[in-house]
Amino acid sequence: MDSEMQTVSKDEIASARRKKRRRYHLKRFGVLMIVLGVIFVLIVIFSILTPTTFKDMADSLKVFFARSNDFPLSFESGMIIEEKQMKNAEIMISKGSLVTISDNGGLLFRDSFNMSDPYLIAGDTRAAVFDRGNKEARIYNRTTLMEKLTFEYPIIDADMSTNGTFAVITESDEYTAQMECYSKASYAKTMTWYCAYNFPYAVFLNDGGSRASVCAAGMDSDGMFTSVYCIDTNKADELFSVRVDGLVVSLKYYSNYGIILFTEDAAYKVTSKGEIQKKVELDGIPFVGLVDRDSSLYAVGFGSNNIPDINTVKIYDQNLDVLGEMVDVGYINDMYLRRNRLYILGDGTVSLYDISGSPGNRYSVPSNARFLEVFQNDIWIIQSGMIDKVDTSERIEEQ
């Protein structure tokens, strides 16, 4: 009896030890799975994070918490030569400085640079300043200088997509020019495309930075023409090229990677396969300027500020059909197209029109106002060293 009880006890002890070992291994396996899960999550997080992630996070916080200021705003600057609207901010450059202002009037950032002829390009939260003929570009977000890029050859032109991808055309030793793209994640070079024909003079990126269109000017017995090369920037593949008469002065993208081309004499709708779907003659009137609204509507100014009485603006849709026409608009110093409304900055006035061309309110502004922006319901007038809001309660009464 004692021997039997002893045997049972040994079996129970062995079983208990096996269960204990099993629980131990299960526990270790569980811990291992948790560790692997944490590592997987960290891998995912770090794959999302980029060298610019924390700068962008800080940028968003600074813009969100920017202290508001009363208008008019005064800031030290020379004559403003270019300005762009960014997401919740305004960015401006003079001959040797850059200033960004939040949409509530807070000073976000100021920088100085040494460029003989600076140009400004901007997306939603990134911007760049470059100097044609030199080799440097400076990349910014709304609150800091992010990168200084130096190229092997002098810059011909550059562009920045809405999401911050940067493209630049430079001279080249063996080709007429080359186009390089730089990632918004780190501004490391992601591709190079070489052009062996004609003379590239402009590059245009789509909003996502996945397409670049390079315009190259040429001349033959029929006169001047432009070859437009469309490149997939992810694969560094040339997708198509299309030739149009004259010099392309503006290029816009529409859905499915199609492009709208404007020359001084005509507008072209080109499909994503490079086929010219439609051509519209522009009446041979000089081209004053163009603005677009989310690449769905285009306001095109025609005429000359030397003879402002002839100035006209037409509104086109994506099919290049005319939705509205404004005649005898006077001086066109700047335009802004938003929702169903067009704003025109003239000589001492801001005039509003709807898309069909019907005139709306007119407001008096300083005659030295050079640029116009609209933030929500506020109309901004930009002068050298000062920004003011238009008093919309005081409109000009029609005679």
Describe the structure in brief.
By secondary structure, the protein is mainly β. Strands 1-32-31-30 form a four-stranded antiparallel beta sheet, with no helix packed on it.
Count, helices: 2
Biggest β-sheet, characterized? 4 strands, antiparallel
The Rg value, from CA coordinates, equals 29 Å
The fraction of residues in strands falls at over 45%
The pLDDT mean sits at: 86
**Total number of beta strands:** 32
| Biggest sheet strand line-up | 1-32-31-30
Helical coverage, percent range: 10-25%
Which structural class best describes the helix and strand composition? mainly beta
As residue ranges, the low-confidence spans are none
CA-CA gap between termini: 123 Å
Shape: globular
Task: Characterise the protein shown here.
There is one protein chain. With 399 residues, the chain is mainly beta. The chain contains two helices and 32 strands. The chain has helices at residues 2-48, 53-64; strands at 73-74, 82-86, 89-93, 97-102, 107-112, 118-122, 126-131, 136-141, 145-150, 155-160, 166-170, 177-182, 189-195, 199-205, 211-220, 223-232, 237-245, 248-253, 259-263, 266-270, 276-281, 287-293, 297-302, 312-317, 322-327, 334-338, 341-345, 349-354, 359-364, 371-375, 378-383, 386-389. The strands form eight sheets. A four-stranded antiparallel beta sheet has the order 1-32-31-30, with no helix packed on it. A four-stranded antiparallel beta sheet has the order 2-3-4-5, with no helix packed on it. A hairpin with a 3-residue loop joins strand 6 (118-122) and strand 7. The longest helix has 47 residues, at 2-48. The chain starts with a helix and ends in a 10-residue tail after the last strand. The mean pLDDT is 86.
